[in-house]
Specification:
Blueprint: H1 2-26, H2 30-41, E1 48-62, E2 68-81, E3 86-97, E4 100-113, E5 119-126, H3 132-136, E6 162-174, E7 177-186, E8 190-191, E9 202-203, E10 215-223, E11 230-240, E12 252-266, E13 269-282, E14 287-288, E15 294-295, E16 300-311, E17 323-333, E18 343-356, E19 359-370, E20 376-386
Antiparallel strand pairs: 1-2, 1-20, 2-3, 3-4, 4-5, 5-6, 6-7, 7-10, 8-9, 10-11, 11-12, 12-13, 13-16, 14-15, 16-17, 17-18, 18-19, 19-20
Length: 387
């Protein structure tokens, strides 16, 4: 009997609470109901979050040297949508190379959709100077284990890979054709003047500006065909690059880039062509060598690559259809009279096997030619997973 009384008491209490809650809800105004609904819709549990990214590992052997496993890396990409207009994307880089663990922030960008033609973004973002940085550099997308000459942070760079600033981008239909466009303001590159061996070279890691000037840049892409198989793009950037208060304060730079992308079915083959040309022209300036002597040179650099890939994607054999042959030529020309001068070219031959649409095993043979030196060959094996 005591148990039954306790159960009846608990049941009565629950009914009273439910009735009280229903009564309070019935007595809410419509404005108060709307505020509750809006609050629930904007709560963290109702936002959209996706974890994407890629990982890779490999093996390298240069010339007659000893081969070594590595590098290996993991790059998680965080995608968060707060509303239909507001969203965030960011990528972290974690890599083990030459026995060291390196961490980096590839990009961290906030986006706000103004309308169907324009989106404004702020933060650290991949540079829209050409297309390699924005679209082709991830390991599971790049056809080769190594980046083209002049497009890698590990060597001399001809053009930026990232920006820190704000941008405005969008796209539009032009009949059967399409265009896409982006304009941006960023901290811009800085000019190296305190290191004689590197004097006149640009640093593109622009997390902090070295002067009051901001770089102005943009890209325009044109897709003339209705199937978007061909895209031709032009990019530009201009900035002052000298340190504030120094004799180089008014030294400027003009950058130009042209890029092309063509993807088309040719019989049973999938043809994929990519290319980009970068040119960097720094204003005339006088630098100092290690002995303090004046050093003058035409500070113009260029780097470019052209890449072709063929894959028999439209045949029935499940093994052969996943094989891809790739070839790439890249070159980099640096100022002849600078202390960091050098003309270099590279031929890459690749055999890729696609495990699925975003996972690939790559075997590359690279032939490097530095002006005045003998050719050197290298073998790279890499497996990359996108997720």
């Amino acid at each position: 009997m005591k148990i039954q009384k306790k159960l009846m008491t608990m049941l009565s209490t629950a009914l009273i609470l439910c009735g009280s809650n229903a009564f309070s809800q019935d007595n809410l105004t419509q404005t108060e109901r709307n505020e509750i609904t809006t609050s629930q819709r904007q709560s963290p549990g109702n936002t959209n979050f996706v974890l994407a990214g890629y990982t890779y590992s490999g093996f390298e052997k240069e010339g007659d040297g000893q081969g070594s496993f590595g590098p290996a890396g993991f790059s998680p990409i965080f995608l968060w949508k707060k509303s239909d207009k507001l969203f965030f994307e960011g990528e972290m880089e974690m890599e083990i190379e030459d026995g060291e663990v390196n961490f980096g922030l590839e990009y961290s960008t906030l986006h706000y959709v103004l309308n169907k033609y324009f989106t404004v973004s702020a933060g650290k973002f991949l540079s829209p100077f050409g297309t390699y940085a924005e679209r082709l550099h991830p390991k599971w997308i790049d056809k080769f284990a190594e980046k083209p000459l002049g497009f890698s942070e590990e060597g001399a760079m001809v053009g930026p890979m990232g920006e820190f600033g704000v941008s405005l981008r969008g796209g539009s239909q032009l009949g059967n054709a399409k265009i896409n466009y982006v304009a941006y303001l960023s901290n811009g590159p800085s000019l190296i003047t305190d290191d004689p061996a590197m004097a006149g070279q640009l640093m593109y890691d622009n997390l902090a500006d070295n002067n009051n000037n901001k770089a102005i840049g943009g890209r325009l892409g044109f897709l003339p065909f209705s199937n978007s198989s061909l895209e031709i793009g032009v990019s530009g950037q201009t900035a002052k690059v000298g340190d504030k208060g120094s004799e180089y304060e008014h030294t400027g730079v003009n950058l130009f880039s042209g890029d092309i992308s063509f993807i088309h079915k040719v019989g049973f083959m999938d043809l994929n062509i990519k290319g980009q040309y970068n040119q960097v022209n720094v204003d005339a300036a006088t630098y100092k060598d290690e002995e303090g002597n004046n050093l003058n040179f035409d500070n113009n650099s260029k780097a470019y690559f052209l890449q072709l890939a063929l894959r028999p994607a439209f045949i029935r054999n499940k093994f052969i259809k996943n094989i891809e042959l790739a070839g790439r030529y890249s070159a980099m020309n640096l100022p002849e009279k600078s202390l960091w001068a050098g003309n270099q070219s590279q031929i890459g031959l690749g055999l890729n096997y696609w495990l699925n649409w975003n996972s690939v095993l790559k075997i590359d043979y690279m032939i490097d030619q530095v002006k005045g030196e003998e050719k050197e060959g290298a073998i790279n094996v890499q497996i990359a997973f996108g997720f």
